Amino acid sequence: MTEQRLQYELVLWLGQTYPNHRRLLFQVNNDARTARVELGMVAGVSDLIFITPKGEVLAIELKAPNTRHNVAHLKNQISWGAEVEEVGGLFLMSKNLEDIKAIIRNLIDGSFERAIELIKMNNNYFKKLVETNKKTIKV
Question: How many CB atoms lie within 10 A of CB 41?
């Protein structure tokens, strides 16, 4: 499954499961081929942003399972996520669609602590992966 397919499946699920929240999950156009720094492109920004019913921001970085990624790029994305967390937002890097759905479900339904547990579990997986000296890794 590609990152685009993961994104499609997540957006489709949210629209079907929580139609009143569909417009609160959106894509960030941060593709270096089409976006420009002068217009607000920021390296490392997440694929999707979700605004919870309580106004919290969840930045979601999707990774397709069994794909290779440049470690320096992953570190940049994790660093951007740390900036989001420093100002009170939430950052999630995940390759698991069911975990992402569970996190969003918990945020919508008010189970904030469970959502945080799942976010930490997913993020820790990637933080351990990037500690390698390799240039690329398989997730």
Answer: 15
Pairing outcome for strands 25-27 and 48-51: antiparallel
pTM of the predicted protein model: 0.90
Cβ–Cβ under 8 Å, residues 34 and 41: no
Dmax of the chain from CA atoms?
Answer: 45
**Token match 């979700």: residue?**
50
Quick one: which of 85, 80, 92, 83 has its CA closest to 25?
A: 92
Strand-pair partners of 91: 59
| Whole-number Å distance between alpha carbons of 129 and 67 | 13
Q: Is 14 helix (H, G, I), strand (E, B) or coil?
A: helix
Q: Tens digit of pLDDT for each residue in 59-106?
A: 999 999 999 999 999 999 999 999 999 999 999 999 999 999 999 999
Domain 3-138: which CATH class?
Answer: alpha beta
CB 28 within 8 A of CB 60: no
